[in-house]
Design a protein that fits this description.
Blueprint: H1 2-31, H2 43-67, H3 75-114, E1 119-121, H4 127-131, E2 147-149, H5 152-163
Antiparallel strand pairs: 1-2
Length: 164
Amino acid sequence: MINRQFTTLYDEVMEQYMKELSQLHGLFDQHKAKPLIYENYPPTAGAIAWARDLYHRAKKPILKFKQHEGLLETPEGLEAKQKYLVFARAVDAYITQLYEAWEKSTLEIATDLLKQPILAAVNPVPEDTRKKKPPGKFRMPPLPYRLSVCFRSFLNFKFASTAS
C-alpha cells in the first residue's frame, strides 16, 4: 500500500516536471529571437545568460531524480529524460550559435579598428602652407607635430561590440 502511494507520488512529481519543462521550452521558443535580457547586460551576453538560466531551471530537478534509483527508469521518467535532452540540446545549439556570431563580428570590428590610426594631429597644417616654402629660409609650420590619441577608434569599438 505504501509502495503504491510512493509510486503514485513519483508519477505526479514527474507529470508536474513535464509540465514545467514544456513551459520552459515554450518560453525559450517564444523569446529566443528577442530574449529577455537582464539589466546592464550586453545583448549577446544577456541572451546567453537568459538561455543558461532556463537550462539550469530544467537541469536541477533531473539531477535530483538521478539521485533516486529507478525514478528515471519508469516510462514517465524516460519520457521526461528524453524531453529534457531535447530542450538541453536546443539551448546548447542556441548558445553556440550566438557565441560564434558574436566572435565573428567582434573579430571583424577589432581588425578594422586596429587598422585605423591611433594618433591624430591637434593642429593640422593647412595644405596650402605645406607647399609654400619661403626662399632661403626655413620656417617651422604651426605645430602639426603635437599629437593626441584618437579615442574615436576606441569608442567605435565599444559601441560596435556591445551592439551585437
